[in-house]
Design a protein that fits this description.
39% of the residues lie in helices and 15% in strands. The protein has 364 residues and is α/β, with parallel strands linked by helices. The protein has an 8-stranded mixed β-sheet with strand order 1-9-8-5-4-2-3-14, sandwiched between helices. Strands 12-13-15 form a 3-stranded antiparallel β-sheet. A hairpin with a 2-residue loop joins β6 (161-162) and β7 (165-166). α2 runs parallel beside α8. The longest helix has 18 residues, at 242-259. It binds pyridoxal-5'-phosphate (PLP). Pyridoxal-5'-phosphate binds next to α3 and α4.
């Protein structure tokens, strides 16, 4: 599903040089590399500020806490996401409320989210799942009408652009993960919050560093979630390749979309605009998903499931609140979804082999 070892030699050399630069600087946590990467990433996303943190989970927790959302507050999100989305909400002290997904996109259904609104609702954590932004104007209206905050979970959507605006720039805060397998990934854990609000920016910097407002002065009960210099330096180099790698993902997805043709599999709806989907993952639905996965494996093609268990069916989430009409689409999706390889190091031949294998899948 990924092949880091096949990355361009220029990129590997630049990463090695960056590593040496950090080691020889003698400064390893919260230094000039972090500052530079925060500045560059905020600029790329079209916002004023970035705060480097330890990972995407922390970025979501900190996003909620700086918005003063916590105990007694409800936050709407999706059951079809990485567990970290919901964990970040829980760790802020707030109560997650799960809205169902639209079956043709696997993104949160606005109609279902409407049913989840109560007097306690303070925010929606909108996950741009698989790399896709959609209906951003409707989400904007939804948040304004209900007087709630929008937080974007951009862990899968680096550089996705909806009508000229980049993922992470729509909400009060955008939360990013740079886990190695993400579209922009470090060589370890890393994350960032981005915002246009100077006050939120300062609060996030305090929270990531023990709640320390000035040296040895603690204004808040914070955490240790600092981006380190090595990861920031690596990310600065990897970011230079992100546009090209994103185009490659989009290209592969387009070839899949046009050439995968098998009555036993169903593709999701195409994106509203090609730039609004950066194809962190390319997924299909298939009623015989496990058989399809076995068939692909026999053809030497790896595949994964994102995600095999809807959040409300996780053992740790017994009693979680959700849409009173249920989460049927999410449950069905978890049983039928399969992710095909879609990464920038794939060759045309690799893509052709995947298509041939999917198209030759038969159900008996
Ligand atoms: C990866 C991911 C996260 C968590 O990021 P980490 O850096 O692993 O903590 C959160 N949300 C989504 C949608 C993700 O894909």
């Amino acid at each position: 599903m990924n092949n880091f070892k096949a990355e361009p030699i220029e990129l590997r050399d630049a990463m090695l040089a960056a590593t040496l630069r950090v080691m020889e600087s003698g400064w390893y946590v919260l230094g000039s590399e972090v500052k530079e990467f925060e500045k560059q990433w905020a600029e790329t996303c079209g916002v004023s500020y970035g705060v480097g943190v330890g990972n995407g989970l922390d970025a979501i927790e900190i996003a909620l806490r700086i918005l003063n959302i916590g105990y007694g507050d409800e936050v709407i999100t999706t059951p079809m996401t990485a567990f970290a989305t919901v964990l970040g909400i829980l760790r802020s002290g707030a109560t997650p409320v799960l809205a169902d997904i639209d079956s043709d996109t696997a993104l949160i259904s606005i109609e279902s989210a409407e049913r989840c609104i109560t007097k306690k609702t303070r925010a929606v954590v909108l996950v741009h799942l698989y790399g896709q932004m959609r209906k951003m104007n409707e989400w904007d209206i939804f948040c304004k009408q209900n007087d709630i905050k929008l937080i974007e979970d951009c862990a899968q959507s680096h550089l996705a652009t909806w009508h000229g605006n980049v993922a992470g720039s729509f909400g009060s805060v955008g939360a990013f993960s740079f886990y190695p397998t993400k579209n922009l990934g470090a060589i370890g854990d890393a994350g960032m919050l981005i915002t246009n609000d100077k006050k939120l920016f300062h609060l996030a910097k305090i929270l990531r560093n023990y709640g320390q407002s000035a040296n040895y002065h603690h204004s808040d009960i914070g955490m240790n979630s600092r981006l380190d210099e090595l990861q920031a330096a690596i990310l600065i180099e990897r970011k230079k390749w992100l546009e090209e790698f994103t185009r490659k993902r989009q290209n592969i997805a387009e070839i899949y979309r046009l050439n995968i043709n098998n009555n036993n599999v169903k593709q999701l709806a195409p994106p509203e605009q090609s730039s609004a989907h950066v194809h962190h993952l390319f997924v299909l639905n298939c009623k015989k998903r496990n058989d399809l996965q076995t068939h692909l494996r026999k053809n030497n093609i790896e595949s994964l499931i994102h995600y095999p268990i809807s959040i409300h069916q996780q053992e740790a989430c017994k009693g979680i609140i959700y849409d009173p009409e249920g989460l049927n689409n999410s449950e069905y999706h978890s049983k039928t979804v399969l992710s095909l390889p879609c990464h920038p190091q794939m060759t045309e031949d690799d893509v052709g082999l995947v298509i041939a294998a999917v198209n030759s899948f038969k159900v008996y």
